Amino acid sequence: PHSVSAAFQEYLQHLGLQDFPCGLGSWNKSRLNARRSPRAQPLGLEEAVPLGEETPEALLELLRDPHSPWALPPDCSPQAQLLREVVVLAPEVLHGSRVFQLVKSLRILDKGVEEVDEGLLRFQQLEELVLSANHISRVTSAHLPRTLKVLELCCNAVSDLQDLCAQPPPQLQHLGLGYNRLCGPSQEKHLTVDFWPNLVSLDLSFNSLTDLLGLVSQLSTLQNLRVLVLQGNPLALIPTYRGFLVDSLPKLSILDDIYIWPEEKQQFHGLARQPELIRSEARVVVSIGEMKGLPNPEDFQQLEVGSEGPVITYSYCVTYEF
């Protein structure tokens, strides 16, 4: 399966770190020799650069000038630009694993990634990992750097949190699991302070979570939780859903992308002590305004006055599937 490490290597190739004006080549070969020789003097002055080579300042200008053919598109991340500039100043970082030490934020979106492999452990400074819109169904926590603070897995196929919670990154502050395949009530037990002691933000939107009481009992242990997104789950159809959450989790600041004002907290005060108001059912009313393609039964019932013909009744059964 296509792994995160493989996608990262493709990303590096896309940045052209081995090619001019980055990396090592005829444009800066004397710098490599200078670094190899312990007695060599640093090449800091432009006039000290041999004929046919470029100064680091000139190479950086080629990367930074928006009109340069080697400039990155405007929508590229600041980290992509940083990596290219670092490789200009210190081309030797491309050898071995030094380049992995430079990456603090890794975003791989919609690249067909299926596996979060152990190659991620080479990113010893990684703080943000965004793998949205891929095909990931399982995340092994042992493959995640312990330095992670943000883990975003939106729009994947995650259905079980057991492997993720075996040894999760202890400093994680945001966990994004929106638009996945989580089903309740078996997954709520993984959403406690025992696994996520520093979690501030949690996105569980558009899954198949149904047990509001069970979920709240687990989320209430997360003392640092301030942002929660649950919209799109069946439990959000419960009439007292928002009020019950607001009163049950008093430290929340934002629920479903809507700020919780003090007036709202006062309005729902005491609702958490009335779980009997939460019903495990919901009613959906569907109104069909117009139907086409069916003959009107009344057209067949226009009998002449005094006719002795039999009365024929037509009826139709309509099935609405959703």
From TrEMBL:
| SUPFAM superfamilies attached to this UniProt entry | Outer arm dynein light chain 1
Q: What residue stretch is flagged as signal peptide?
A: none
Please tell me whether the keyword Glycoprotein is annotated for this protein: no
An example GO CC term for this entry is: cytoplasm
- Keyword annotations of the record: Leucine-rich repeat, Repeat
Q: Which InterPro entries match?
A: Leu-rich_rpt, LRR_dom_sf
Q: What is this protein called?
A: LRC43 protein
